[in-house]
Design goal:
Length: 161
Amino acid sequence: MICLAIASSIMALLMASLVIFVRLRAAKKPTSVKKIVLPPIFMSTGALMFILPMFRVSPIQIVEAVIVGCLFSILLIKTSTFEIKDNEIYLKRSKAFIYILVGLLIIRIVMKTILSSTIDFGELSGMFWLLAFAMIVPWRAAMYLKYKKVHHELLQSRSEM
């Protein structure tokens, strides 16, 4: 079991590195509704894990994971803003975002280490998937609303020209 916990922590580090890399590259290109909405849709396929009994979690574990995920999403929402450059909408770079992402990763690894002694690996995996999904959905929903607001401003500025 300790091997699985270590392997999943290493995987989390790799995924966080990938997210940071993608986020840095995304700031160099205009964004779109598709780029905002697709990640949670792609991630939703992970819910198929709950078909297997080992990944199923109790209702209280669901509530706990969703609450923590929603709390974590607040930090991401605060650091995700858009700006208009060259008549296009860009995700504004935030130095705090990377630190927040690394901080959340550290918290996640510490939580996983502590909880792995009392919760089965499968259940813990299910809980952390729920936590991540409950973090990404509100974050991306807020990004979508912010994007639509900036898009409306862009359309207004174009019509005034």
